[in-house]
Design goal:
The protein contains two helices and ten strands; from the N terminus they run ββββββββββαα. It is an alpha+beta fold. The longest helix is centred in the C-terminal third of the chain and has 18 residues.
């Protein structure tokens, strides 16, 4: 076990994933970063976006919500608001969410209190579509 990287993905509802992986890639607040066995310890905030890992030379893709990651040389613990595996993303629903958010944004000013909420909805829909295309 000393030469393996353990990945745990936790949401408020459940332990979504726990297994040994070869590598994991996360969307950090300062940009995307990868983690391999022996990574330097760090704490990072995670922004909504793609999370993927490689196990047995096969990549698995997710859309992860905002959260935090704790990395040690042997373990990556990812605490996120939500997690959705690419194969379960409903593309039609994500496309409708994107179109609805775009229409709402076109009709409101950046100073409107709802602007950031609608913008986040758009960003989430676009991320879901992007990840869904990878499978």
């Amino acid at each position: 076990m000393a030469d393996q990287l353990m990945l745990e993905i936790v949401t408020p509802e459940k332990l979504a994933f726990s297994d040994v992986v070869e590598e994991v890639t996360l969307s950090g607040s300062e940009g995307e970063f990868g983690v391999l066995i022996g990574h330097a310890p760090l704490l990072s905030s995670i922004k909504f976006g793609e999370l993927n890992y490689t196990k047995d030379n096969k990549k698995t893709y997710y859309v992860a919500g905002d959260g935090y990651a704790e990395i040690t040389n042997l373990k990556a613990t990812v605490l996120v608001e939500s997690i959705e595996e690419a194969e379960y993303i409903k593309r039609e629903e994500a496309q409708k969410d994107k179109e609805s958010a775009e229409a709402q944004l076109a009709g409101i000013n950046k100073d409107d209190p709802d602007y950031e909420k609608v913008k986040k909805t758009l960003d989430m829909a676009e991320a879901r579509l992007k990840v869904a295309e990878k499978i």
